[in-house]
Specification:
heterodimer; A: 313 residues; mainly alpha; three-stranded mixed beta sheet; 4% strand; B: 523 residues; alpha/beta; six-stranded mixed beta sheet; 21 helices; 20 strands
């Protein structure tokens, strides 16, 4: 066994110290989900006769930023965040991502929605890691008497660091994706060298995923009204296989029909660009600012605040 | 069978031909013959109705005429040149095709982007294409939804957006495949107006002869892949002999139109909004809803303040424009959704637990019957529900034969549901539901997309049923002929609850949601 500091605690303090904070976290996540749901209920129908980005927050610098610069910069910056090793710089990265979201005027409910989508997976990490990391020299382990369970504080900090990094990157996805129409973003990818077919497929998938979902719902309802319910028997398996088969056949047929409709309107294998734009000086400034912040974070992570307890490996 | 016409009737033989098919034959990849010996000429300004039974090859002919598929024999010519290679690429930009399902045609991220798609392919710069797309949207009254995503549009709006995408390209020839299917009468009237103002040649496939009569002057009849006749539209519609010959005699509708049929239907028990008096003599209503409401997760209030009481063996129609809440009401009745308020079925309150068992007593035939057919054979399809209600194996086969004979599908036991025609599928869906002997039978647009022969057959099957029926339809003939009480829905509420006879007599009520249109007569 490595030379670590062990703190003995009575077993009944386990729920108090570990499970109760986790339960509080779970309650908070549920509450956040409810807040998000409430906030996402639309009020009045918006005016669809004007382009969406000129009406809602289209004036932010992130909206005006050239999409190619935005993709490259935010992706590189995300890799920088992923390479952070300490908790404090990771927390700083979360704050910076929040600032970017605020500059981009992203609605708070959408930001919360991104985070709550990750919450389940990350919460599991927070539960498992403190109890499963290998004990190294200098680690502090809280041992709950009689149960043989050791909570490693380094594991807890490691889990918190991973969570902070994941949150910081997830928060950047909203400014990346929702500050330009999807076709513009995908066209930007094409211009950065991605094969033409990939963005086209994403674009069509985005359009038809809604149609597909609607079809799945209607077919599932068709089964339900004739008494289908999930059970663990061959009959259920057969019904599900038929359902999936029928769904596949219908999707295949729709694909052919969509392709026919595209050809009938002159499609010859290429979507036209939604609009060309030259990279301006302001776009380059944006790249420089964000990447400088990223490099500063990296330096802070690798060299700064050595004495700070949360900056230790 | 009558003698087939080899040469199309040409009323104005000297005119230029914009599109023609000469000796066109087509076989599907599996070898099935779809079309043979098709000779057809379309001149500028021609307005042609292409009619025929389901499966007669109408859609295949449309695909051939616009060059989406190549004929196995013969040729298709556009402006005198065969549709192939470079000429094909140029020609298809002048031939607009409106497909049956608008979702197949709207692949853009926003409506305006979709409408501009064809224009960009015609070589227009982005700004010009955008401007023309906006004009086309204005033409179909959708300019206010230009930046909406297509999947958020209603069905009628999608159909108009798809038409805008075609009209924007200013085609010389417009080919339309079932343009009115699933549209409510109001939307149908809008479409009719748009097509009336189209200046080029037009070829329209539809089972709705009255709609066709309003926009077409010539009728080409297709049967088993061959052109059987090339009449004037007037000749076709006015001669019942021709209609019968080609099995699209819709005159059964005209016979029943006077609003007398309600008296022949089972006696109406109530038209009151309130529940029957709580006297000890009255049996509880089969369905009772008090102050029922339903709100979608996105906040849309689909149903509000619903008071509905249905007695056993009553026949009720639910009418209203698209989006009035009819389908949501059906979903609640059958237990697919649960709203707030009181819902009683056969005197028992329907809560979460009972809701999941409602399928045993309530049967529904969906608007698109393909949504409820997922088995590999007709008998498997019917047996699916029977096994769920616990019908003994020995009785299943007998019951299958019984219901197949009720819906006139004897001998179809081993056929694949997916390969049946639209009308056969609809009747199979009905058979699946009837096999389970529901106390309440719900029919959602049962005749939509059926040819007149299929409609007549479906009507004849339904009129003899003794069970409680709830019919949702825009078809005023069916409403009049099959029901004795009509509920009118608007913005999620039942705004009128009266006898069908009163409803049919009240022109102001029928006109409220454009329903009058479906009673229109050929001019």
């Amino acid at each position: 066994m490595a030379d670590a500091v062990y703190i003995q605690m009575p077993w009944w303090q386990l729920p108090l110290l570990v499970l109760m904070p986790l339960a509080a976290l779970a309650v908070m996540i549920l509450w956040l989900r409810r807040v998000v749901q409430k906030q996402s209920v639309p009020g009045e129908e918006r005016d669809w006769s004007v382009p969406p980005l000129t009406q809602s927050g289209g004036g932010s610098p992130v909206h005006r930023w050239d999409v190619r610069c935005k993709i490259v910069t935010l992706l590189v910056y995300s890799f920088i965040i992923a390479s952070l090793r300490h908790f404090a710089p990771a927390c700083a990265a979360v704050c910076l991502s929040l600032v970017v979201s605020m500059i981009a005027k992203i609605p708070f409910s959408r930001v919360l929605f991104r985070l709550t989508a990750l919450a389940g997976f990350l919460g599991l990490l927070l539960i498992v890691m403190p109890f499963t990391v290998a004990t190294h020299t200098g680690d502090t382990v809280v041992v709950f008497g009689g149960m043989g369970l050791g909570l490693n504080l380094r594991g807890l900090i490691l889990a918190a660091t991973i969570i902070a990094k994941a949150a910081a990157i997830a928060l950047l996805m909203e400014p990346l994706v929702s500050t330009a129409p999807l076709p513009v973003t995908l066209h930007g990818l094409s211009r950065l060298g991605a094969p033409d077919m990939a963005p086209q497929m994403v674009l069509l998938s985005h359009r038809y995923v809604h149609v597909f979902r609607h079809e799945v719902r209607r077919m599932a309802a068709g089964m339900q009204v004739r008494g289908f319910s999930m059970q663990t028997d061959m009959e259920t398996l057969r019904a599900i296989a038929n359902f999936l088969g029928m769904l596949f056949v219908r999707s295949f047929e729709r694909t052919e029909r969509v392709f026919d409709a595209m050809r009938a309107r002159g499609y010859t294998g290429r979507f036209h660009a939604p609009g060309e734009r030259q990279i301006k000086f302001a776009d380059v400034c944006g790249v420089v600012i964000i990447l400088s912040v990223g490099v500063a974070l990296l330096l802070f992570d690798r060299m700064g605040l050595q004495g700070w307890p949360l900056c230790t490996k | 069978m009558h003698e087939m016409i080899k040469e199309p009737v040409s009323r104005e033989p000297r005119r230029t031909i914009v599109l023609s098919a000469q000796g066109v034959c087509y076989r599907y990849p599996d070898g099935v013959k779809a079309l043979s010996g098709i000779d057809m000429r379309i001149a500028p300004g021609d307005r042609i109705a292409l009619v025929g039974r389901n499966g007669s090859g109408k859609t295949t002919l449309i695909k051939l005429l616009c060059g989406l598929i190549a004929p196995t024999a013969g040729n298709v010519r556009c402006k005198g040149r065969t549709l192939s290679a470079e000429h094909y690429d140029r020609s298809r930009l002048e031939i607009g095709v409106l497909f049956q399902d608008p979702d197949d045609q709207l692949f853009g991220h926003t409506v305006v982007e979709d409408v501009a798609f064809g224009l960009r392919n015609q070589g227009l710069p982005r700004e010009d294409a955008h401007q023309r797309a906006m004009q086309a949207l204005q033409q179909v009254n959708l300019a206010t939804l230009a930046y909406k995503e297509p999947h958020h549009l209603s069905y009628g709006q999608k159909k108009r957006a798809a038409l805008a995408g075609i009209l924007a390209m200013q085609p010389k020839i417009l080919l339309l495949d079932e343009p009115t299917t699933n549209l409510d009468p109001g939307q149908e009237a809008v479409l009719l107006d748009l097509l009336k103002h189209f200046k080029g040649s037009l070829l329209c496939v539809s089972h709705d002869l009255i709609f066709l009569y309003n926009i077409c002057r010539r009728a080409v009849v297709l049967d088993q892949g061959r052109i059987h006749h090339d009449y004037t539209m007037h000749d076709l519609v006015s001669q019942r002999r021709y209609l019968r010959e080609h099995r699209f005699d819709f005159s059964f509708r005209l016979v029943c139109l006077p609003a007398d049929s309600a008296s022949k239907a089972p006696a109406s028990t109530s038209t009151q909004k309130n529940p029957p008096a709580s006297g000890k003599m009255n049996p509880p209503p089969l369905v009772g809803m008090r102050n029922y409401a339903y709100q979608y997760p996105d906040g849309t209030r689909a149903l509000q303040g619903i008071h509905l009481f249905i007695q056993s063996e009553e026949r009720i129609a639910v009418v209203g424009e698209n989006g009035a809440g009819k389908t949501t009401l059906l979903s609640c009745l059958i237990g697919l959704r649960q709203g707030t308020g009181d819902y009683y079925f056969a005197g028992m309150p329907v809560k979460q637990k009972q809701r999941k068992r409602l399928w045993r007593q309530v049967g529904i035939v969906f608007q698109d019957s393909a949504d409820q057919l997922f088995n590999s054979s007709v008998q498997e399809e019917i047996a699916f529900g029977l096994r769920r209600i616990g019908c003994p194996r020995s009785a299943i086969q007998g019951r299958i034969g019984e219901v197949l004979s009720m819906v006139r599908l004897e001998g179809f036991e081993n056929r694949v549901p997916l390969h049946l025609s639209g009308g056969e599928r609809k009747r199979l869906a009905l058979a699946c539901v009837l096999a389970m002997e529901p106390a309440l039978l719900i029919l959602d647009e049962p005749t939509a997309g059926l040819d007149p022969q299929g409609q007549a057959l479906f009507y004849n099957i339904l009129k003899n049923f003794k069970t409680t029926i709830l019919l949702v339809s825009h078809d005023m003939f069916l409403v009049n002929a099959l029901t004795n009480r009509t509920l009118m829905m608007h913005q999620g509420q039942i705004i009128q609850d009266l006898t069908t006879r009163d409803f049919m007599r009240d022109k102001s009520l029928r006109g409220l949601n454009g329903l009058t249109f479906s009673l229109r007569q050929p001019r």
